[in-house]
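hi! just following up on the protien thing from before. the input was this:
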Amino acid sequence: LDLASSQTILESLKADNGTSYTLCAVGKLTDTEEGKAPYKYAEFATEEGVLPQNAKYSRNEAYRLITECLQLECGVNKALTFSEVTDEDEPEYKLVKGLREGGYVRMQEIDHMIRNGPEAYKKAIEEFDEKNPDYKSGVYTTEAWWEEPRFKEQLAQLRAEQGQTDKDNGVEEEVVKDERTLKIEEIATDWAKREYFKQNMDGTIDESMTEEEYTKSVWDRALFEGDLKYRQMNGETPDAEAELADFKVRQERKEQTMLERAKAELTEILEEENLGGKDLEETLSKIEPRSSSD
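and the predicted 3d structure came back as:
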């Protein structure tokens, strides 16, 4: 359809004020699989919404789009033109792929694309780059003060002065990992990436948190999920619910132990600088470990 024809159709839809409408325009229908290619959309009856004569679109994907748009609130009184995206550098390509890899079902994916779309995606990237100008160089920030480079440097210096080594303090030497461990870590990394993307899109994590930071913060849970998935892939039928409950109990104990150790090390450093005292002890005693991830 040309621009004039599109505008005539849209005007006719809007003519009856008491009737809501949903319109999805696509190219020539082809018999290809649903969800095979990412997509982008534009407002129907605009210059950007006019499709070229050779435009093609999956028949099954078109059915999916109109089905979801008819039941989504964001599709009410919307007239949109959809087209396939094959350029991997296009933000729509990256966003759709990311939503799918992040575990979004089609309804959630389409709802997110229409409500937020690539503009919100671009804005999120710009804000991230602004808040983390050095992230490509491996420079990150964290709220876990015992993970801060400055604290670790002071702690290493204190240990060196006391003649302690990493081995003395429970730091394990690098070991050769077997095939099973490598596969579990691979699954765990994929799980953490999906969770990071999902929570980032839902706005349930701090905007300044990087994927590497998030992965590090949930790595124990990721390994648990990786081990569970690995065993399921190899024919086992573990009781996932019971194992998760047991994992959470063990994780709470571990976090409590790590917190107490960090408190002790911080106290030792501050006392070396004559900065300790009852106020410090009272403050540290009130610090509670973070709750385990759900």
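Residues 138-146, 169-173 have pLDDT under 50 and may be disordered.
The first helix runs from residue 3 to 15.
cheers
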